[in-house]
Amino acid sequence: MSADFLESLRPLFDCLTDGFCVADVDGRLLYANEAAGRLLGPEAQAEAERGSICELLCAGLDGNHGLTAATCPLKVPRGAKDAVTFKGKFAPSGRDLRVRCLRVRQPSVERHFIIIEDVTANAAMGRQKEEWRQMLAHDFRAPLTIMFGALRAVEDLGVGHALDKDDLEIIDSGVRNARRLNDLIEAYLETTRLEDGALPVRASAVDVDLLIGAIVDDESEVARSHGLALTAGPPSGLRARADPELLRRAVTNLIGNALKFTPSGGRIRAGASAAPGAVLLRVSDDGQGIPAGELPHIFDRFYQCESHRRGHGLGLGLTFCRAAARAMGGDITVESEEGRGSVFTLSLPEASAAEARP
Questions:
Q1: Are the C-beta atoms of residues 345 and 334 closer than 8 Å to each other?
Q2: Sorting pLDDT into bands at 50, 70 and 90, what band is 302?
Q3: How far apart are CA 35 and CA 190, in angstroms?
Q4: What is each CA distance from 88 to 18, 85, 93, 247, in whole angstroms?
Q5: Residues 343, 284: contact at Cβ < 8 Å?
Q6: Right CATH number for 3-118 from 3.30.450.20, 3.30.70.600, 3.10.20.340, 2.60.420.10?
Q7: Given 3-state DSSP classes, what are the helix, strand and coil percentages for the chain, each rounded to the nearest 5?
Q8: C-alpha distances in Å from residue 87, one per residue of 84, 123, 163, 188
Q9: Is 289 left (phi over 0), alpha (psi -120 to 50) or beta?
Q10: CB of 348 within 8 A of CB of 242?
C-alpha cells in the first residue's frame, strides 16, 4: 500500500472518529488520520513519527497486560497471529484507549494497520455503574441486617414470652427498616419505569401553592433539627398540569436534597412563579453548591458527585426528579455556584383554564 494511495484516501479516513494508522514491520509510522492525532496528542504523534508508534502505544498504555513492542506477537516473522487488541489509559493524553493492531502480509512487504478507539466515556460509565452497584448492595444490606437481627431477637424469646418495652422497640426497628428497604426498591423500580415510559402518569390541575406548603410543613421539623430555616415562597395562585403524587415526590426529593447538603444555619426556600405557558417550581438553598464540572452529570442515574459522597441512599433522587418532570411534559434544570448554594427549577405545563376551574 503506497503512500500516494493512502493520501488519496485521506478524506475518507479523516471522517472517521477512530484513529487509523499504518506502520511498517518495525513500527515506523507511515500514515495517521486526524482522529489519531487528536487521540494521541500532538507531542505523542510527533514522537511516533520520529520513532516507533508500537513502542509509544505499548509504553504509554497502562493495563495492557504486560504487552510491549518487543513481546508483541505481530513482531514474530511469519507468526501465526495476525491481530492483537489491548487497552488502557494513555498517559500522554489521559484518555482511555482501545488499540487493535492488524498485520497485513503482501508478497514483498508487510504492513500493520492500527485502529485507536477512545473508550474514555465507556470506561467512566463502567466505573460509575460498578460504584452504583456497590452502593446499591450496601444500602440494601444495612436494613436487611437490622431486620435479620430483630427477627432473631424475637425468635430467641421463645413461645409464650410476654413482650416488654425493649422487645417492642426491637420489633419497631425491624418494621422501620423493612419499610426503608421497600422504599429503596420502589425508588429504583419507579425511576426505571419512568425513564422507560412504562409508569402511567395521571395529570390534573395541581395547586402548586398548596402542594409546596404541605411539603414544607412536613419537612419543617427535619429542617429545625438540622438548624436550617425552611420556608415557602409567597402565594403564586398557579396551577400546573401534573401528576399530583409524582410532583409531590419530586419536590420532596429536591427539598430533601437541599436539607442534606446545606450546613447548619442555612436557608432553604421553595416557591413557584409563572413563565409563558409554564409553571416554575424552584427550590433554592445557600449550601455547599455543586462544582461546575459536575453540573452536567448530576441527573444521570449512575453518577455520584464527589461533593455528595457523604450522602446516603441510592443517589436516585435527582434522577427520579428528571424522569418525573419529563414524564409530565416538563423538565428540570439547576444553577449552582460552589460554596454559594444551588437553585433547582422544575418546569411544568400550566393547567388550562378548563382544567384549573375548581
A1: yes
A2: low
A3: 41
A4: 16, 11, 12, 44
A5: yes
A6: 3.30.450.20
A7: 45, 25, 30
A8: 10, 11, 62, 33
A9: left
A10: yes
Per-residue model confidence as pLDDT tens digits over 55-64 = 788 777 765 5
**Burial (CB count within 10 angstroms: exposed 0-12, middle 13-18, buried 19+), residue 221:** exposed
Query: What's the average model confidence in pLDDT over 277-305?
Result: 84
CATH entry, 204-356, from 3.90.79.10, 3.30.565.10, 2.40.70.10, 3.30.300.30: 3.30.565.10
CATH number assigned to the domain with residue range 123-195, chosen from the 4 options 1.10.3470, 3.30.930, 1.10.357, 1.10.287? 1.10.287
235: which 3 cell numbers? 402565594
Beta carbons within 10 angstroms of residue 16's beta carbon = 13
Phi and psi of 4, rounded to 5°?
Answer: -65, -40
Average pLDDT, the chain: 81
pLDDT in tens, 138-181: 667 778 888 888 888 888 887 878 888 888 888 888 888 888 78
Q: Which is nearest to 203 in space by CA: 326, 346, 322?
A: 326
Pairing, β 278-285 against β 341-349:
antiparallel
